[in-house]
Amino acid sequence: MIEIYSQNIDDVWFSIAFEKQQIITSSFGVNRQLTLSNILRNLPFNVSFEFFHEPSVFARSILASLKDIYDGKGIDSNFPLALNRLPAYTQKTLKTTAKIPLGYLASYGSIAKAVGGSPRAVGNVMASNPFAPIIPCHRVVKSDFTLGGYGGGLKVKLELLSREKRGFSSSTEVEVNGHMLQVFPVEYSLGRLCLN
DNA sequence: TGCAAACCATAAC
DNA sequence: GTTATGGTTTGCA
Length: 196
Hints:
Layout: E1 2-9, E2 12-19, E3 22-29, H1 32-41, E4 49-52, H2 57-70, H3 88-97, E5 104-107, H4 108-115, H5 119-127, E6 140-141, H6 154-163, E7 172-176, E8 179-185, H7 187-190
The protein binds a DNA duplex through helix 3, helix 4, helix 5 and strand 6.
C-alpha cells in the first residue's frame, strides 16, 4: 500500500508517495493539482494507494525537508529513495545528479561523459526525474551555461538556483563511479540571465 | 548567430 | 522489432 501526502508550506505545495518507508516519488509546485498529478504519474501501476489529508509525523518531516531544499538550504539527511524499479541507466544518471553539490552546476554533456550515453539521453532522464527536488535536476544546465529546460518551468529553475548561490568563484570536481565530474558555481548560469 | 546532423535511452506502437 | 521523442552538443557557414 502506497501512502500519499501533500502539504502547503508558505504557498508552495509539496507532495510525496511512500511505500514501506521508501519514497516512491516526490513533487512540488504552486499548483496543487499539477503536483499531485506528477505524483500519480510516477506510481507503479500494480500497487494500490491511499491519499492522506493529514501528514504523519514521518511524512511531515520529509515534507519539511523538501521545503528546505526549495529554499536553497543545505540538507544533511539521506533520503530513502526507491530507485530499484527504474531502468539501470536512469538510476545511474539520477545518482550522479545527486552528487552535484549545493551551489554548483553540471552540464547534460558532462554527466553523459561520466555515466555513458549522450547529452540528450541525460536530458530525458532529467525530464522524467521522479524525485524533484530531492534529486537536484535543477542543477543541470546546457554546456554554455544557459538554463536548458525544467519540468516546473524555467522561472522556478532560476529561482532555485538563485537561492543556492553560495559565492563560489571557481569550478571543482566530484567523483562519480571512477570518473571525475566537473561542476561549476551556479553564478555561471545566473550571470547569463537568459529567460525565454 | 543559425542550422543540420549526430547523439542514445525510453516509451509507445 | 521499430519508430518517435527529447530539459543536448558540436561543427560549419
